[in-house]
Write a structure and sequence with these properties.
Blueprint (H helix, E strand, L loop, with lengths): L9 H13 L5 H10 L8 H14 L9 H12 L1 H6 L2 H14 L4 H5 L9 H4 L8 H9 L3 H11 L12 H17 L17 H11 L4 H21 L2 H12 L5 E4 L15 E5 L4 E5 L7 E4 L8 E10 L2 E11 L11 E5 L12 E5 L2 E4 L3 E2 L4 E2 L5 E2 L5 H10 L4 H26 L1 E2 L8 E2 L4 H29 L6 H29 L1 H5 L5 H8 L9 H21 L3 H18 L2 H4 L4 H4 L2 H28 L4 H7 L1 H26 L3 H21 L1 H6 L5 H27 L5 H4 L6
Parallel strand pairs: 1-5, 2-5
Antiparallel strand pairs: 2-3, 3-9, 4-8, 5-6, 6-10, 7-8, 11-12, 13-14
Helix pairs in contact: 4-6, 10-12, 11-13, 12-13, 12-16, 13-14, 16-17, 16-18, 16-20, 16-30, 17-18, 17-27, 17-28, 17-30, 18-20, 18-21, 18-27, 21-25, 21-27, 25-27, 25-28, 27-28, 28-30
Length: 745
């Protein structure tokens, strides 16, 4: 064993010399022989080492556990020289040789396995098992929209939707347009429009189509979303009947391809600051759309570079030199032959990091005249006298109401991102289940999914994907059944989940790529396309970091309103309840409790998430108030506390996600599904608590002993979920033709 690395170091040599002097059962001849065989300057020959190896291996019983290497030596002695073994002090020999092994740093029981031909252990024997009916979980995930989902999967699995080489920009863009036209011909494009304009009056169906298409080609998803979601829905949500009748039927069939021209070079998230102008000419009953300088061009506009014939243009409304804020206008871009109209300058954004099937462009308007009726006038209009009119008196409320009608995009994008995460995880987990590497000496190699660190890499991401799926179900339902007084909360939910889910997607696909090694780097296995095409989702429909500021401000507004509506008795009640909560949550028994039932209790998980959210909310509110009481400008105060607000928004969203996951489990009646979903939910909750354990330790919410127990439980949950991992990704029911990854078959 000591010669296995071909050298004997000084400390090992000294240990042997001391050993030879100390034991009394070696003859002088034996000592000289062993000293010669253990001379650091005279290693054994390859033939001698091989002879030793064969002699030892032939004497080892694969079914016997050997506590020391000396135990194997005794076996050899008994087999080859039974008469000597009979007279030898074997117990003493085994004990003293065992002590020598310890001095040399050899763990005898483990080292003995080296000489076995084979042996079974937990890591080699653990494997995928089907603990639930995959079809039932698929049905639970798809819900009532399963027929539509299956229908779309069938469509995108056909030969006509086979992947094309994205390297040829021109051909790829044209192919994506063809695919969108095929989908429009089947009625999917207009599915969210009212029936009287050729639609299906099914906004939930639109989101379902977007998400399901995301299993195929993300350029198609975005082109589809620009045409029917942004362009079409802006006409529907911001326009009135005359616009609906004139444009929606042609938009729904893709006869009228269009754009959504909001973002400018200098203004993305700050829509209120856009500089494109729409000047009203009362005498001519027209608007003049103008780009005042190069940095006010509409930039990164999907459908603009090649195919868009019209655009919804966001511009500052000017009447008699007075600025009435942002309104929206339909502006023609190209004629029937596709030629750019006078006053319109369009530049191709060119090749991008991903989504190269979408023709993004920059648009500049040089005093382009449009008729008065091209103003989308649901929330702002110009009357017959040339005066500005709006059903909403407050400029601020009108602006946010206008943008709020477009919140659907912040639901479609994260649902698309979830589909990309599911695709990446399906590829990586299936591959990890069949890819074998290393293993105990003398045995077969082990699936890499059996390695604890590999489980740690992928399975918390899988649990988070399931958690986000149920949260997106919830926010979609809230949006579809929205009431006016709930819109601020729904917008905050949509903005927060959009940020959380798209960041999760980016992290997930990177981990999936690395977990598949070089295979994940090959384009044929599609993780590169998923990564590149969905990367922009973190800044699509609003930059994630900016959106989370919106979420935090919404939470602070609700917090402030809560106190403003309190009288003396409700304030006392609030303080008492907060005190009770603090006493309960920080009970010395609770903060140190490592009992398994407690660690896996959803009440403990939810309490921990709620405590974190409420504590950060309270401290953020107090901090901002203190800064402003000290005379700091409100803008500066918010800027100083920006990281605090970011953390608040993330805590709020994580609490909502956990809440909805727990609710889904409570609603599930199938015991097998309930069990596997409970394990996933436990992993999601404890992994997030572990992620934030620094905060919890700072707050005295738990002690180190509990933090360690949570880490250990996360490891255990990963191990338990491993056997279900492949069925769990199979439950996403992604067509193989869509995955199109050889390593996932």
């Amino acid at each position: 064993m000591v010669w296995s690395d071909t050298t004997i170091n000084a400390s090992e040599h000294q240990a042997f010399q001391s050993f030879f002097k100390a034991v009394d059962w070696l003859s002088e001849e034996d000592r000289k022989y062993l000293t010669a065989k253990l001379d650091p300057n005279s290693p054994p020959s390859r033939e001698e080492l091989e002879m030793w190896w064969k002699t030892i291996k032939s004497s080892v019983d694969n079914d016997t556990t050997y506590p020391h290497l000396s135990s194997i030596g005794i076996e050899i002695l008994k087999k080859n020289a039974p008469e000597v073994a009979h007279t030898f002090p074997l117990s003493k020999v085994e004990k003293e040789l065992g002590n020598l092994e310890s001095q040399l740093g050899i763990i005898g029981q483990s080292a003995a396995l080296t000489f076995k031909s084979s042996h079974a252990n937990i890591s080699t024997s653990y494997e995928t098992k089907k603990g639930f009916e995959t079809e039932k979980l698929t049905a639970l995930l798809d819900g009532r929209r399963k027929p539509l989902i299956d229908e779309i999967k069938s469509v995108i699995s056909k030969k006509e939707f086979d992947y094309v080489d994205p390297g040829n920009l021109k051909e790829y863009r044209e192919q994506v347009l063809v695919w969108c036209k095929m989908l429009a011909d089947k009625g999917y494009g207009s599915i969210g429009f009212p029936k009287e304009y050729g639609g299906g009056d099914d906004m939930e169906g639109y989101f379902t189509v977007m998400e399901t298409l995301s299993y195929r080609d993300l350029s198609t998803v975005i082109k589809f979303g620009v045409q029917f979601g942004l362009w079409g829905m802006s006409v529907f949500m911001l326009g009135t009947k005359k616009h609906h009748e004139k444009y929606l039927p042609a938009i729904g069939t893709l006869e009228l391809p269009g754009c959504f021209a909001m973002t400018e070079t200098n203004h993305g998230s700050n829509v209120r600051g856009i500089e494109t102008t729409a000047t009203y000419n009362h005498k001519e009953k027209t608007f003049t759309i103008n780009t005042p300088h190069i940095n006010a061009r509409k930039e990164y506009i999907g459908n603009a570079a090649l195919h868009g014939k019209m655009a919804t243009v966001f511009a500052k409304l000017l009447i008699n030199d007075k600025d009435y804020g942002v309104s929206t206008f339909i502006v023609p871009l190209r004629d029937e032959e596709g030629k750019t109209l006078p006053g319109i300058a369009i530049e191709d954004c060119g090749r991008k990091m991903g989504l190269n099937g979408v023709d993004n462009g920059l648009i500049a308007f040089d005093k382009v005249t449009i008729p008065k009726e091209n103003m989308l006038d649901r929330f702002s209009s110009v009357d017959e006298e040339g005066e500005f009119q709006s059903p909403i008196a407050s400029d601020n409320k009108r602006f946010f109401t206008m943008l709020g009608t477009l919140v659907g995009g912040r639901i479609g994008i994260p649902r698309s991102a979830l589909a990309a995460s599911k695709s990446g995880l399906t590829i990586a987990i299936r591959y990890a289940d069949k890819r074998r590497q290393f293993g105990p000496d003398g045995t077969t190699e082990v699936p890499i999914l059996n390695y604890r660190m590999h489980q740690r890499r992928l399975l918390p991401l899988l649990s988070k994907t399931y958690a986000c799926h149920f949260a997106m179900e919830y926010v979609t339902e809230r949006f579809l059944n929205r009431k006016e007084d709930e819109m601020q909360e729904i917008e905050a939910l949509a903005a927060g989940l959009k940020s959380y889910v798209t960041w999760h997607n980016t992290a997930t696909l990177q981990e999936c790529r690395e977990a598949c090694g070089g295979k994940g780097f090959l384009s044929e296995n599609r993780i590169d396309a998923l990564k590149n095409d969905s990367d922009v989702y973190t800044t699509f429909e609003g930059d994630n970091t900016v959106l989370l500021q919106l979420v935090a401000k919404s939470r602070l507004s609700a917090y402030k309103e809560q106190f403003e509506n309190m009288n003396l008795f409700t304030v006392i009640d609030y303080v008492v309840n907060k005190t009770k909560t603090s006493i309960t949550e920080k009970n010395p028994l609770i903060i140190r409790n490592t009992d398994e039932n407690h660690l896996l209790d959803p009440e403990f998980h939810l309490n921990a998430f709620q405590y974190r959210e409420n504590s950060i909310l309270s401290s953020a509110g107090k901090r901002l108030k203190r800064l402003m009481d000290e005379g700091m400008d409100p803008f500066d105060a918010v800027n100083v506390a920006q990281h605090h607000l970011f953390t608040l928004a993330m805590a709020f969203i994580e609490r909502v996600i956990l809440e909805k996951f727990i609710e889904k489990i409570e609603q599930t009646t199938d015991p097998e599904l309930k069990q596997v979903l409970k394990r996933l939910c436990d992993l999601f909750a404890l992994y997030q608590i572990e992620t934030h354990n620094g905060w919890y330790l700072e707050q005295g919410y738990m002690e180190g002993i509990k933090s360690k127990a949570i880490r250990k439980m996360v490891n255990q949950l990963c191990w338990e979920i491993r056997k279900d991992a492949v069925p769990l990704v199979n439950a996403f029911n992604i067509p193989d033709s869509c995955l199109s990854a050889p390593i996932a078959t």
